[in-house]
Design goal:
Number of domains: 1
Number of helices: 2
CATH superfamily: predicted glycosyltransferase like domains
CATH topology: Thrombin, subunit H
Number of strands: 6
Helix content: 10-25%
CATH class: Mainly Beta
Strand content: 35-45%
Largest sheet: 6 strands, antiparallel, barrel
Structural class: alpha+beta
Shape: globular
């Protein structure tokens, strides 16, 4: 997947800067490109691209704008892992400059301990993979 085709580079940074006022991060974020499926109640799944994640939430890009405050079901999985199903609250969904995409921030509302443990393992593996890639370069 090519990040340039998804208008993420400078636009991702610009969107992050625009959100600084609301950016009270509780957890460290990791930049990544990964597919995710989002589902609103009684609607079809929408394919999206994960651009960063943390223990408490994530940011994605899609052609769908979500309503702030709505609850969505999200399924995230890497090729080597079983998908994780989580629920999240939409915190914002803003247009990405010079594209037909929206940057959407989600905060997890899943409280199930087993699901939380799976998510912690997933984030740990992303962090570990990024560290190994840095060492290999």
């Amino acid at each position: 997947m090519n990040a340039e085709n998804l208008n993420m580079g400078d636009n991702h940074l610009a969107n992050q800067e625009a959100l600084t006022a609301d950016n009270r991060r509780e957890h460290k974020r990791f930049v990544m490109l990964e597919y995710a499926k989002i589902k609103l109640a009684d609607e079809a799944e929408i394919s999206s691209v994960l651009v960063d994640l943390s223990l408490g939430g994530l940011q994605l890009r899609s052609r769908h704008q979500y309503e702030a405050g709505s609850i969505v079901d999200i399924s995230i999985g890497r090729g080597d892992t079983e998908p994780i199903a989580l629920q999240a609250e939409v915190r914002y969904s803003l247009p990405v400059k010079k594209s037909d995409l929206f940057a959407t921030g989600l905060k997890f509302v899943t409280t199930d301990e087993a699901t939380t443990r799976k998510w912690v393992d997933y984030v740990h593996n992303v962090f570990k993979d990024q560290g190994e890639n840095l060492l290999a370069d």
